[in-house]
Design brief:
Elements (H helix, E strand, L loop, with lengths): L3 E4 L6 E5 L6 E5 L12 H4 L21 E5 L2 E4 L36 H14 L4 H4 L39 H14 L4 E8 L5 E7 L11 E5 L8 H16 L4 H9 L1 E5 L4 H6 L30 H12 L4 E6 L2 E6 L17 H14 L13 E3 H4 L6 H9 L2 E8 L9 H21 L2 E7 L9 E4 L2 E6 L6 E4 L5 E8 L6 E7 L4 E2 L2 E3 L30 H29 L13
Parallel strand pairs: 8-9, 8-10, 10-13, 11-12, 14-20, 14-21
Antiparallel strand pairs: 1-4, 2-3, 4-5, 6-7, 7-9, 11-13, 14-17, 15-16, 15-18, 18-19
Length: about 600
């Protein structure tokens, strides 16, 4: 059995030793103290045993390290940290001959000084939230802070500096070649496409987008979908596959029924590379070494709302969402084979199923992709080839959750390749395996769900009202131009749909949504005197310029934590001063040093 161990902090050396027994391995990591967790996935426990050691150095606090193990390319060690009882000095049974009472005993805990205790309480206030460095991909890797600390592991086999050799890049388009390919596509398929840029990367590379439609660049009462590739620089499969998708749609329009349906009934936007700088550097983060999929505002992580730390690539996506009225979306990643859906994180930061209000609709969308794939639905690791993000491993600051909260855009995170950077010779096969999944996912916007327009009864004009479904705590906004809405819902169920707008009386109706899509228009009556109608809002309710506060903001809890902790700290300082003042008259000259 070949067992490969990947450190979460690749720059830190580790020792991997095989024992005499081929079924036993000893793992030793020499890591900063705050990096320590010790636990193994149940599957790993069933085939081997292991233990980790660490030196205390000068700290008296308990921290965690992360161990990640894989057989070949399959991860078999991936687990949420488990805290040990204070009186326990071991997390797992030690091997024979392990010195009892040793400073190397796993997870040993020592008594804390009162001031240290208060500091730990302060840290605990922020421990309920991921650290800012983690949410931004760990700008300072030397600190040892990474997103694994706040969930399990980032999209499969996270490595800050993967060993991507020069020969591995052969056969992939460079950034300049990709730009040429995008421009050539715009010229070759001008009748069904337009090419535009949504911004630039840190190093100035344009973020090119291809829009595919029978009326590109025009506003229509049709749903819009976006694909985003190469979010992580070391996962380039998406950029290649998305260009294949664009060419296939262009070549098969008016020839293939599915291609024709997509071109004539949707507006498909394709961003092949969100992170061109990371691709050029052959690493996960962008030019600032920031993980872009941890850089978005997060409902459970209000500190991430700080606009000054937002990366230009992230800002470009946020402004794009504000300008375009997207119904659904998907980002393409590599390192696993699964369709991931919200939420990506949980309120208590635990690894558990944490569904969003539209959980059924997202499960349906993820299943459309998985079941259309060559073998994704046959996964032994993920039932049906789909997974809830928080159940797989929690992340914070992700693009997926932000899209749903702020844009009403139903986004999936698609892991389309077991290997992050496969050989170029495998790209055509990966495209063929994902082709029908991508097409069916886009087409599902038209084939299922509820679609319609909202009008004002007094003028007959379309209005940008809101649509809600009873029992589902989320809403989508109709477009400003045509008042059209496109609501993703799982088929085969009954729903009570409510249309509303400020200044108008809401209207509701109950529908039975079958396998086919349903058209449902609303005509709203003004609810007051003439002139009482309030101003029209933008399509997207997010405020991208100020960081966009998510719903269910948790900032109040943070301030309560801080207020209580500062109060405790003030009491502690007063207590120390009182004790010092009482002891001062009784003090004697310093005694000679005593060795401890």
């Amino acid at each position: 059995m070949e067992l490969r161990v990947i450190s979460t902090i690749p720059t830190v050396p580790y020792i991997f030793e095989y024992g005499d027994d081929s079924h036993r391995a000893l793992l030793k990591y020499r890591l900063p103290l705050r990096e320590i967790i010790v636990d193994f996935y149940n599957e790993l426990k069933s085939i081997t045993s292991g233990y980790a050691t660490f030196d205390y150095e000068d700290s008296e606090q308990m921290f965690e390290i992360t161990i990640q193990a894989a057989i070949g390319s399959k991860v078999i060690a991936r687990e949420t940290p488990v805290r040990v009882k204070p009186e326990s000095s071991r997390c797992h049974s030690p091997p024979p001959g392990w010195p009892h009472g040793s400073r190397d005993a796993p997870m040993a805990i020592r008594r804390l000084h009162p001031l240290s205790f208060l500091l730990l309480l302060l840290l605990r206030a922020f421990a309920s939230l991921p650290t800012q460095a983690a949410a931004r991909g760990g700008a300072d890797r030397s600190s040892g802070i990474d997103d694994e600390k706040h969930g399990s592991f980032s999209r499969n086999l996270l490595e800050d500096k993967p060993e991507i050799m020069e020969e591995m890049t052969h056969g992939y388009m460079s950034n300049s070649e990709l730009e040429i390919a995008v421009q050539d596509f715009g010229s070759r398929c001008a009748n069904v496409s337009r090419v535009y840029s949504i911004g630039k990367s840190v190093n100035g590379s344009p973020l090119w987008v291809i829009e595919i439609s029978d009326k590109p660049g025009q506003k229509e009462a049709e749903p819009a979908f976006k694909f985003i590739g190469n979010v992580h620089g070391d996962e380039p499969v998406g950029r290649e596959v998305l260009m294949q998708l664009a060419y296939w749609l262009c070549d098969n329009y008016l020839k293939d029924p599915l291609a024709t349906l997509i071109v004539e009934n949707t507006h498909l936007h394709i961003l092949p590379a969100m992170n061109p700088d990371g691709f050029a550097l052959r690493r996960r983060g962008n030019a600032n070494n920031v993980d872009l999929n941890r850089d978005f505002p997060d409902q459970f992580f209000p500190i991430n709302d700080e606009i000054n730390y937002r990366q230009p690539e992230t800002r470009a996506i946020m402004n794009w969402i504000k300008q375009e009225h997207f119904t659904a979306s998907a980002s393409l990643h590599g390192g696993a084979l699964v369709a991931n859906y919200p939420w990506d994180g949980s309120r208590n930061k635990r690894k558990e199923y944490y569904g969003c209000p539209d959980d059924k609709a997202f499960r349906y969308m993820a299943s459309v992709y998985s079941e259309s794939h060559y073998n994704m639905s046959l996964s032994k690791e993920f039932r049906g080839g789909i997974t809830n993000g928080a159940l797989w491993y929690p992340i914070y600051g992700g693009m997926q959750d932000w899209n749903y909260i702020h844009g009403g855009c139903f986004e999936l995170t698609l892991e389309i390749s077991d290997v992050k950077w496969p050989k170029a010779s495998e790209l055509l096969l990966i495209w063929k395996q994902n082709k029908m999944s991508m097409l069916n996912l886009v087409a599902s916007m038209v084939k299922t769900g509820v679609h319609g327009r909202i009008f004002a009864a007094d003028s007959g004009h379309p209005i940008p009202g809101s649509l809600m479904v009873k029992g589902i705590d989320s809403k989508i906004n109709a477009s400003r131009t045509f008042g059209d809405y496109h609501r993703m819902l799982a088929p085969g169920e009954s729903y009570e749909v409510v249309a509303s707008m400020e200044g108008f009386t809401p209207k509701r109706t109950r529908i039975m949504l079958e396998r086919e899509a349903m058209n449902l228009d609303f005509i709203l009556d003004p609810d007051g005197a003439v002139g009482q109608t309030k101003p029209v809002r933008d399509d997207c309710s997010c405020r991208c310029d100020d960081g966009g506060k998510p719903f269910l903001i948790r900032e109040a809890y943070v301030w309560l934590y801080l207020l209580a902790l500062f109060f405790l700290l003030a009491l502690y300082i007063l207590f120390r001063r009182r004790i010092a003042s009482r002891l001062a008259p009784h003090r004697h000259p310093p005694k000679r040093p005593v060795a401890v």
